Queue: 2 jobs
Job 1
Amino acid sequence: MLPAVAGIGGIGKTRLAIEFVHRYRNHFPQGVFWLNMENPQTIAAQVAACGGQRGLQLFVDAEHEATQGLRFGSDDEARAPRLSLQQQVAQVQAVWAGPGQRLLVFDNLEDPTLLDQWRPRGGGSRVLITTRRQRWTTASGVQALPLRNLHDAASQELLLKPRADERECSIAELLTTAHEAAAAATLVQALGGHPLALNLAGTYLARSSLSLAAYHAELRGTSVNHQSLSPALVEGLPQGYQVGIVAAFALSYGRLHQSAEDQLARTIWLAAAQLAPEPISAEVLLRAGDCDPSIRDQHDQGAQALRRLRELGLIERNADNYRLHRLMIAYAQSVSPDQATDRRHAASGLAQTIKRLDDEGELDTPSAFREHLTHLFDAGINATDALHADLLHAAGLVWYESEDYRAAHSYFAQALEIKREVLPQPHRDTAVTLYELGRLAQNEGRYAEAHDYYEQALEIKREVLPQPHRSTAATLHQLGNLAQAEGCYAEAHDYYEQALTMQRAVLPQPHRDTAITLTAIRNLRWKALIETGLCAGLIWLWLPVGLDWFGAGAIIIVGMVGYWRWAIATRLVRAIWRMQIGFLLSVILFVPFITYILPNFPHSFTLLAILGGLVGLGWPWLMATARVRAVRNRMRR
């Protein structure tokens, strides 16, 4: 395998190769040969130079020939015939393919065809590659070794050591105040562990009198174009290397051409730069480029654009996500011709992805989207149009899944207001947000408000959607859940049956939605059966003999009527068994106390029965109140 040090521009690939050569050159007694592979037109000349008098001494090169002619006055006839460039290259390559321990450093190698053209075929030569390209095929034999950003401690040392050395003190002595320590941490975060940026910033700070906080303020205003990050850095680099942050990134960006593939890659990259410097899912990026991952051709086009960005070192991949370095984000924003359009692309990709995940019940990690949404809102995407409403709706979904119900309600309410203003009414998207507001109100125990939202959503869907429809069925199912929570079993049963009929008509069977509704009907039936049976059993135990069977039978009839027809019947059964459960618990807990401590207290047992019944009757309300209070406390934390 051929080791390839891979990473974005300026992260230190070439310097690492130089350090490797410095430490291990003794392992390559036949020489170390350094080739800059950035420009394919110059590679042959570099290879030929390796065979000249300063290299393998295989032939007299042009430079040596000219020197000898000036020094000794030799004429053209006395000179040996000069080899052509191709002959010189062939001789060098023949030596490299032979025995002997040599190291060839292919620096800035981005094109796999160049590797195939210039690598030795056999022999004792070894090849070390530096590249921005993070993706190599197995057939190439290249093993990419990603070079990551520095961690905070190493970043701080690289940033502040030049200033500490200049002032002849320690880094700790530079950070004697909490203000400067905080400014140093902020600077480290802003530079994102990028070695070149830290090196340039550290060199600038060593000769500057600016405080760390003042330098960060300047850097925040000018970003990658600040004078501290733009000068050429030549110390320790091979001849001809001059690197600043902008120059390092521009080398990669400049390789994007005007082809359709590169245009798509550019659109995706500029959109990604409008999101937070956090992992971004591939689906968000594809949709930001107006590629639908569910359509094969569009998915392949988007995936190829992402591969192109990785090959150029403009984006990094980690597992199934992608990421842009903080400084790369700043550079992309500086070269963008229209950041407002880029921001809209990013918002569209984010909103569509979140909605798709929620529709499929796969919004399992909402935290992965929170930073990006907050970043877009902070950047000022405040247009009152349909896209902004979609983004607000998506934010509501994310915060709802995070159980931050107050923020979710705020986002949904803003989305609803914009949709009612900018969309023709009635509109399906308006119904979608009304539905989510209903779910939120139901989850917080505000059943009347939830019922109103659901009914509005249902009315719109029945008007604007072809019937039957999956979305209409979902609203009917949720109305069934709400009715069940309120104790209206007959109403809940009716809603579930309507939803089930629609689902069987429009969805392939079996289907997850149909299974959920069938389970809800089954659970409703068992719940009604258990509550009615429990109530009848307790009535049978407490009524005098002769009335016990009559009372139990009456309760069973009332329970059946409540399940099939009248909600008031179910509520009566639930009220009776709750009162009985409260009474039983009070007897178990307090009868010993009354018997032994207050035996002569008049009507103690009657009062106990009344108290237990009242507690049992109010218990569901008490439970709901406690649940809402717990939610609020969690939100405050």
Note: The radius of gyration is 37 Å.
Job 2
Amino acid sequence: MSDQHATTHLTDGPRDPEHDPAAVLALEPEYVERLTSRILATSGESKEVTSPISGAPLAHIPQSSEADVVEAFARARTAQEQWARTPFAVRKAMLLKLHDLVLERQAEILDLIVLESGKARKHAFDEPVHIALTARYYGRTLDKHLAAERKPGVFPLLTRIDLNHLPKGVVGIISPWNYPFTMALCDGLAAIAAGNAVVAKPDAQTMLSALLGAELLEEAGLPRDLWQVVAGPGSVVGTSIIAKADYICFTGSTATGKRVAAGCAERLIGCSLELGGKNPMLVLADADIERAAEGAVRAVYSNTGQLCVSIERMYVADAIYDRFMERFTARVEAMTLGAGLDWEIDMGSLISQDQLDTAVRHVEDAVAHGAHVRTGGRARPELAPFYFEPTILEGVTPAAECFAHETFGPIVSVYRFTDEADAIARANEGEYGLNASVWTRDSSRGRRVAAQIKAGTVNVNEGFAASFGSLEAPMGGVRESGMGRRQGREGILRYTETQTVATERLMNITPQFGMSDETWAKVLTVSLKALKKTGRA
């Protein structure tokens, strides 16, 4: 094992005959036991998790019961009562300490992410960076977002209005496998910054990355009971969380998100949902071709396309189509493919057989309906069990499954356009609206086009990183891509209840000095007309 990973709890496991001479990396049993001990699980059952890199066993994850979820909420509620009274300065210090810990221990974090998800190390690096940015942002701004606000009262000077932002209580976080560290933590950081507790259910495939995050939170100073972790199938554990939480944050598929929303509606609790996408990219005729081609590779193939905001369809101006496609294809074909812990890998593996099956089916179906594979299009089991080549499709027709349905894999469909308005209309087709990308040398033109696209975020001359990395900027979807926003002021205030406190001075809003109701109404009418002339609200 190289010095690079000497302190990250990895050991060389047995040789894998199908991938010899590479050694299968395993985790030290004591390390796995330390992390999994954080799960509240008394069912006596466990689930084996294997690594997408080799298919070798990675860990056995203890499974929680419904009774464990009940206990998790009981502990969290007790801890939250004290935490809600904790000064902002203490919360801020904890978040800023987490920022430092994440950056210091990034090698360990990256190893776990890669082993659990199969993604390239360069793409795994996005996760600790995003958590460090999130912790720093709320660590520096939470008091600004949460401080009581003064608002005008009905009568100037006589009526005082204070708005308080109070924590909701215990927030349920149900996070996905595609970004196992950042999605397990980033939404919860805003929740605890706002004074809430968290009961988290990370995805079964990527529990260890989430558990390491919980460990780092405690090391940063967060009371342990304030962040509870449970494990198990969504039909059991997820349903139980929805039945007990004061607010739900869910990231995952649109189909599951609708069921989560229905469960929350039944209890009249709030939720934020980041769901699926079929994200478009528009390359306008005046785009910098080299820059757009390089950006397209990152926008499409980061995390092997298993990214909610990744680009799955591209509309390229006819005037530059051939030149752009030549450069884009060359860059794709020059990518270093593989699965492992090395920084040199440009694209890693899909995470599961299900994801591989979808990629294979979408390509075969597209070809059957008249599409052409410009490059890629094949599974590569010699690289990893679930590996699929970066793929470019041309001529995809509306009859193909991948025309409008999310692939969530390393496949993009490319189309020509001659009219900009038509390209915008095609980008707005379908039911999704999460992210979009526009490429042009004229930034003002790019922003004008962006304003016409139905998406929660639009990046000009970038695929997704500009919006995702700007923590002041809210992020989320419209239409069937979700509801609510993470990041920024909206990302923390979603976890609060706004309380209005009205204080009346000197006199009440009732008839005064023995006036009749009729006379009082006339006095109020005159007062309202006078207030309008002052220009006050």
Note: Residues 1-7, 14-23 have pLDDT under 50 and may be disordered.
